[in-house]
């Protein structure tokens, strides 16, 4: 497409490549703007992915949640009796429970304290589907035994290597002794430095203020022939308004909405993306405006020869399009490397996606076209009689 455009209108390409220094400055500015947008969007997506990683692993079709709960880290419990109310409802095959809470983990090496997210359930009836943890759930049947997230931040201690030399590792959680009996992978988030899996019995010992009949998430599995929408409506009719009945996607969307709308994360990263867009727009505008100003006599000559304003405006917009494509390429390449460095340093799930690549490319094109549209006002106002 670009080659066809250049063959039809070589003036735009010749204008762009004529001033090598100016071209380099323009491409550097566009690449910088793209990197800034990729950086902000990538971190925001990583925050959402980290916050919802546990949601995708929940076993069930519908989920009960306290209506006052905002997100997984500040979740509020509700009475287990709500599950008993729906256990015989038409379409419900089974029910399950999940406990969760933020606990204080003490690094076994240097005794420093860190925040971890603990998840607990009945090991004989697991509430989570984590491939590398599932074969080890039997270990959780022993009181005070837990599994440790191998992707936790290194500040929590070198647990993985220590487990290679011993079947279990003693550690402290909420100032209580626990035994780490295995490893799994889930991933850290902005709210916690790591994760632990344990039985509900061990959880209630580590969190002595929690009552057994106060659960955090109720998991409902439906019969094979049941309609998700119909059963959801049926359960909502049975239960009072203090409990929400959500599908997995609704639960995930609720979590993302909390971090995107109610916390500074969404505002900060969104604002950073806008700043990147504006920076790129200003840089491209200055380049194109300077180019139009420097070649105003030549443009006036073309107008005197009969070329319309529409044609000349098209040349400027084509320059903007060319700059957008050429500037996007290094911006994308550098962002790929930057994502790798960020993922390694923060252990957050930062990775490039096709949707984000397309979005930034579209924003780059819009950024350059808008800049060209502003810059061409000087061109449209040019009168050959005034110039010569």
TrEMBL record:
<keyword id="KW-0812">Transmembrane</keyword>
<keyword id="KW-0813">Transport</keyword>
<keyword id="KW-0472">Membrane</keyword>
<dbReference type="Pfam" id="PF02687">
    <property type="entry name" value="FtsX"/>
</dbReference>
<feature type="transmembrane region" description="Helical">
    <location>
        <begin position="265"/>
        <end position="288"/>
    </location>
</feature>
<dbReference type="InterPro" id="IPR003838">
    <property type="entry name" value="ABC3_permease_C"/>
</dbReference>
<dbReference type="InterPro" id="IPR005891">
    <property type="entry name" value="DevC"/>
</dbReference>
<dbReference type="GO" id="GO:0005886">
    <property type="term" value="C:plasma membrane"/>
</dbReference>
<feature type="transmembrane region" description="Helical">
    <location>
        <begin position="354"/>
        <end position="376"/>
    </location>
</feature>
<dbReference type="InterPro" id="IPR051125">
    <property type="entry name" value="ABC-4/HrtB_transporter"/>
</dbReference>
<keyword id="KW-1003">Cell membrane</keyword>
<feature type="transmembrane region" description="Helical">
    <location>
        <begin position="320"/>
        <end position="342"/>
    </location>
</feature>
<feature type="domain" description="ABC3 transporter permease C-terminal">
    <location>
        <begin position="273"/>
        <end position="379"/>
    </location>
</feature>
<feature type="transmembrane region" description="Helical">
    <location>
        <begin position="23"/>
        <end position="48"/>
    </location>
</feature>
<protein>
    <submittedName>
        <fullName>FtsX-like permease family protein</fullName>
    </submittedName>
</protein>
<keyword id="KW-1133">Transmembrane helix</keyword>
């Amino acid at each position: 497409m670009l080659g066809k455009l250049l063959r039809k209108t070589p003036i735009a390409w010749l204008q762009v490549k004529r001033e090598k220094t100016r071209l380099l400055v323009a491409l550097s500015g566009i690449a910088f703007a793209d990197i800034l947008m990729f950086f902000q969007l990538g971190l925001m997506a990583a925050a959402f992915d980290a916050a919802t990683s546990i949601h995708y692993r929940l076993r069930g079709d519908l989920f009960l949640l306290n209506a006052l709960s905002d997100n997984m880290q500040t979740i509020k419990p509700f009475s287990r009796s709500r599950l008993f109310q729906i256990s015989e409802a038409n379409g419900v095959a089974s029910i399950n429970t999940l406990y969760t809470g933020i606990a204080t983990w003490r690094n076994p090496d240097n005794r420093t304290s860190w925040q971890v997210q603990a998840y607990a359930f009945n090991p004989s009836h697991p509430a989570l589907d984590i491939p590398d943890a599932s074969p080890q759930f039997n270990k959780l049947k022993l009181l005070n035994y837990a599994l440790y997230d191998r992707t936790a931040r290194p500040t929590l201690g070198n647990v993985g290597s220590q487990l290679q030399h011993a079947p279990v590792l003693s550690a402290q959680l909420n100032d209580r002794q626990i035994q780490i009996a295995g490893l799994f992978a889930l991933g850290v988030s902005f709210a916690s430095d790591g994760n632990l899996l344990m039985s509900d019995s061990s959880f209630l010992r580590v969190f002595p203020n929690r009552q057994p009949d106060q659960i955090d998430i109720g998991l409902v599995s439906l019969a094979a022939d049941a309609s998700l929408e119909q059963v959801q409506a049926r359960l909502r009719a049975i239960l009072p308004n203090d409990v929400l009945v959500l599908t997995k996607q609704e639960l995930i969307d609720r979590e993302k909405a909390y971090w995107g709308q109610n916390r500074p994360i969404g505002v900060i990263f969104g604002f950073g993306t806008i700043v990147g867009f504006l920076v790129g727009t200003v840089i491209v505008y200055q380049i194109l405006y300077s180019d139009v100003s420097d070649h105003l006599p030549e443009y006036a000559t073309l107008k005197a020869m009969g070329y319309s304003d529409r044609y000349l405006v098209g040349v400027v917009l084509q320059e903007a399009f060319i700059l957008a494509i050429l500037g996007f390429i290094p911006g994308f390449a550098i962002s790929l490397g930057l994502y790798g460095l960020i993922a390694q340093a923060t252990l957050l799930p930062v990775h490039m996606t096709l949707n984000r690549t397309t979005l930034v490319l579209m924003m780059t094109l819009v950024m350059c076209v808008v800049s060209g549209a502003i810059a061409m006002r000087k061109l449209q106002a040019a009168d050959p009689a005034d110039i010569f």
